[in-house]
């Protein structure tokens, strides 16, 4: 019997590439022929890509054009994430057709199925056209996924569009999200407050809800983390596999070098000198600060943060990339000296840091984060409490989950220097013990889940079994 062949295809941004690469390696370890398909542009940005192919020799790395010119900014403000549906689709289809010829000539097994990022909608359209089974990968948490799939219910019950401008209004009708769903926590398309029959709204809804047609949904979470929501969101899909935290799962298979996945697959070169700086700091004395890869902040906001961090008196390691600075009216994007050198005594500022290594360092005692899903999982595994300052997408509902339900972090209520100062003092001081106890509990649950007999481990085994059950001879088109 031929070896099952799985194509793993992420959205070409850092927060989606990393977890899907971890999944690809786990599938390869389980005996599947695994192809990891990324865009040429993403591959070119990976400074350490050759090392990645050496580290994972059993993964077959392949590349396609994303359909955009080389000088396209490919950011949230450029239309990139909506335009890929049209521009990347023909290149993806051509790649699959080229694999048909390779398999016919004996160079690779026929494709068994595609595991595609839920945001690369074109992959599902092409797979349906070629009658290939698909699985959907979800890089955010189950709560945000349930929020998406509650949109038809919210329209039916007249919660959408909003009847007033109270963005903190609590919505109580969604199963599994009781106490978690405020208007501000809904997916961004809802915040546009469009009428339900608006073509743009309907198209977006069609794309997201289309994942119901896939053979199953694979999600980077674990059962104990979202216990309130998971039983409800799972009902939307044929199969539902909780397999996270994927970075820790991979670490359990290949040892303590799993952080190399992040460094080699990173679209930015990390400043390794910050680890040497951490080596010289006292135990649990440093607050790590990073707002992820997509959110943009103004210079005035960043300076308020800088003053708040310095005024707190606590040591801090802060990631500030020049390309995330938002230009304000009448303001030149010139990085102030404070953000270039930090506080001479207590601060260290870098363009990019090896986040997993930083969080695992014994000098780090807290994490001020935008509350992206990967950062939450990495913080839990490292047993580090969080300060949450959400920006967009899933980050708002993640913040309420972290602070109100899991109680492993506190929210930064405002971005002025006094609020930053007091919140840092609270996390690193008076609330430290209680938050640490909670985060330790969930870290233990996560480790149990990826261990032998754990829920994530079992679900990965079920996923592999289900893929192996797909018989290529039953497909009407062999690729």
TrEMBL record:
Extract the GO molecular function terms from the UniProt entry: quercetin 3-O-glucosyltransferase activity; quercetin 7-O-glucosyltransferase activity
InterPro entries referenced in this protein's UniProt entry, alphabetically = UDP_glucos_trans (IPR002213), UDP_glycos_trans_CS (IPR035595)
EC number(s) per UniProt?
A: 2.4.1.-
Keywords from the UniProt entry: Glycosyltransferase, Transferase
Keyword Glycosyltransferase listed: yes
Q: Which SUPFAM superfamilies match?
A: UDP-Glycosyltransferase/glycogen phosphorylase
Q: Identify its protein family.
A: Belongs to the UDP-glycosyltransferase family.
Spell out the PANTHER family in the cross-references: GLUCOSYL/GLUCURONOSYL TRANSFERASES, GLYCOSYLTRANSFERASE
The protein here is known as Glycosyltransferase
Q: Which organism is it from?
A: Ziziphus jujuba
